[in-house]
Amino acid sequence: MDVVGEQPIYLAKAIAAALKYDVKTDEGAVQIQNMIQENGLEAAICDITKLNPHSDLVKLIMEQYHLLAEGKLD
User: Fold this and answer.
1) Rounded alpha-carbon distances, angstroms, from residue 9 to 20, 27, 44, 58, 64
2) How far apart are CA 20 and CA 44, in angstroms?
3) Whole-prediction pTM value?
4) Digits of tens for pLDDT over the chain (74 positions)?
5) Which of 12, 27, 31, 73 lies most in the core, judged by the most C-beta atoms within 10 Å?
6) Nearest to 48 by CA among 7, 16, 8
C-alpha cells in the first residue's frame, strides 16, 4: 500500500465484487465459489491473487467482501 500512498479502496471493492460473482452457468465463477466454500475466503483470495495472507490488501479485500455481502458497499 506504500506504492499508492493510501488504501486502494476501489481495487479492493472491484476484487470483492469479482469474488461475489456467482453465476452457475459461468465455469470460472463456479470454480471461485467452490474455492471460497472449501478453503475459506482468505485462502481463496491468496490463491487467486498470489498475495501474502498477512498483507493489508488481503485484509481490505476481505473487509470489502463482507460489506458487499451485507449490502453496505457504496
Assistant:
1) 16, 28, 19, 11, 8
2) 12
3) 0.86
4) 445 568 999 999 999 999 999 999 999 999 999 999 999 999 999 999 999 999 999 999 999 999 999 988 66
5) 12
6) 16
